Amino acid sequence: MEKIQNLFINGEWTKPSSEEYLDKYNPTTGELYGKFASASREDVDRSIDSAYDAQKKWERLTSVERSKYLYKLIDLISQDREYLTNILMDEVGKPRVEAEEEVDGVLDQLQYYAEFARKITGDVVEGTKPERIIYQYKVPYGVVLAITPWNFPAAMVARKIGPALISGNTVIIKPSSDTPFVAGWIVEKVRQAGFPPGTVNLITGKGSVIGDYMTSHKKISVITLTGETKTGVQIMKSSSSIMAKLILELGGKAPFIVWKDADLELAARVLMWAKYWNSGQSCIAAERLYVHEDVYDKFINLFIEKTKTLRIGDPRTNDMGPLINSGQLSKVSSFVESAVSEGAKIVFGGGKPQLPDKFSKGFFYMPTILTRVKQNMKIFREEIFGPVIGAMKVSDDFDEVIDLANDSDYGLASYLFTKDISLAMKASREIKFGELYINMPGPEASQGYHTGFRMSGQAGENSKYGVEEYVKVKNVYIDYSKDSTKGEVIPPYT
Ligand SMILES: NC(=O)C1=CN([C@@H]2O[C@H](COP(=O)(O)OP(=O)(O)OC[C@H]3O[C@@H](n4cnc5c(N)ncnc54)[C@H](OP(=O)(O)O)[C@@H]3O)[C@@H](O)[C@H]2O)C=CC1
Ligand SMILES: O=C(O)[C@H](O)CO
């Protein structure tokens, strides 16, 4: 039975004014999965007006009252988590284990933010005279536009609505057109949780069509995006007319460094996660492999042997599913072709896997490992976002390795495997990435600040810093003396 999903505006599911719908295909089978509303500018206006009107009342609730809605939402998602797990497997092609992990992540993040009730505090500082004082409050911005990606479509919704709502903002969610149904399911749980109408709205439709209109709308105060760097750049341009606060979590190009003293078994196991988690479609995926010359051959062979054990196919019963769409499949494939044309060598994978006929239209790509990769090759410069990694042998010069790691337009996550504490501390200081994982896998924790250097974005998400991104510090100066200007000459007001 084909799914049909409408817009969610002012507390109700509603048809798009254009009555137009877009198609969503199942990445595992390539078959039509459902149709979802293509919002018009009129629909966008209605959703933003609704959020704007609702925000005034939402802000006036106490944070404890707001948190109760989040706790109710957590309960409703928990009770029906198997359904969300299934949509994640269907819409994204995520293997079951990863889909369940993402549901855990949704619940953990919503819980983490609900617990901020009564904990977003300000300061009181002394005034310019004994009987003057300055109160510094943290107040919500207003209406938040949350633009979410397809790779973690449920977790990214939670990561944005959680801090926005607990701090008194209202939200319009614009999910990826590759995963509209995951977002829609969460919004239905928001409705069932009884959030006041307009607190959370859902607008679906192509970002390339309605994106600029939404991100330049006068009533939007904050725009939070997880997506491609070029989308972030476009949003910076379109939102400049409204000077919206931007929270941009963009592309990554994580270096994965294996030093000569590394625990190679551990490093190889972590690389299996860092490269093939979500078929490599993660902003913190390992994208550049740097291995010390002394252990290079041994580690590459160890990683190839582990990669051979990956079961690829139906996400319900395998370790790795398909890529999200045909565009991503050709993009990933082109990275391998360009690397080979520049002199790299495929030592494993490098094409579509042999699968039963029913998956022949699925967007599958083999886990692929290349050697003889050079720093200036496209495969080391641009975000692949697939189960492909190039490897480069590095010398015993750790400074050079740090320079190679930092030589990237991106600066989100990075990985280092060494037993040498002085090298680890040196990397902690000199690696210019928002995250450095030492002798361990990711992903980022709800209490960790997920942020990046350079073209990986600005501001950040999660942790107490992530909550602070949704509030503005307001300063109130009070003079409580009987005559605040007694005996005081204040030019030119004498
Ligand atoms: N760092 C990360 O976590 C992520 C990085 N990426 C990178 O982006 C590449 C493409 O993935 P994709 O999902 O298409 O990323 P996009 O950046 O295109 O999409 C992310 C979100 O932005 C929306 N969007 C697109 N264009 C605009 C616009 N002009 N104004 C407002 N919103 C817009 C999309 O809507 P719509 O789907 O309707 O276009 C989607 O909701 C990947 O190959 C990967 O390299 C992708 C996802 C996450
Ligand atoms: O956006 C992503 O890919 C997530 O932050 C990875 O955990």
Could you characterize the architecture of this molecule?
This protein has 15 helices and 25 strands. The chain has 494 residues and is α/β, with parallel strands linked by helices. The strands form seven sheets. The protein has a seven-stranded mixed beta sheet, with helices on both faces. NADPH dihydro-nicotinamide-adenine-dinucleotide phosphate binds at residues 147-151, 174-178, 206-208, 211-212, 215, 225-228, 231, 234-235, 249-252, 283, 328, 383, 385. This is Aldehyde dehydrogenase. GO terms for molecular function: succinate-semialdehyde dehydrogenase (NAD+) activity. The active site is at residue 249.
Please sum up the structure shown.
This protein has 494 residues and is an alpha/beta fold. The chain has helices spanning 41-60, 63-79, 81-91, 96-114, 155-166, 180-192, 207-215, 229-239, 264-276, 296-308, 326-341, 378-381, 398-406, 421-430, 463-468, and strands at 3-5, 7-9, 12-14, 21-25, 32-37, 123-126, 132-140, 143-147, 170-174, 200-202, 222-226, 245-249, 254-258, 286-292, 345-348, 368-371, 388-394, 410-411, 413-417, 435-438, 450-451, 453-454, 457-458, 460-461, 471-479.
How does the major sheet shape up? 7 strands, mixed
Main-sheet strand order equals: 15-16-17-14-13-19-20
- Gross morphology: globular
Distance between the ends? 79 Å
β-strand amount = 15-25%
CATH hierarchy class name of the largest domain = Alpha Beta
Helix percent band: 25-40%
Mean pLDDT: 97
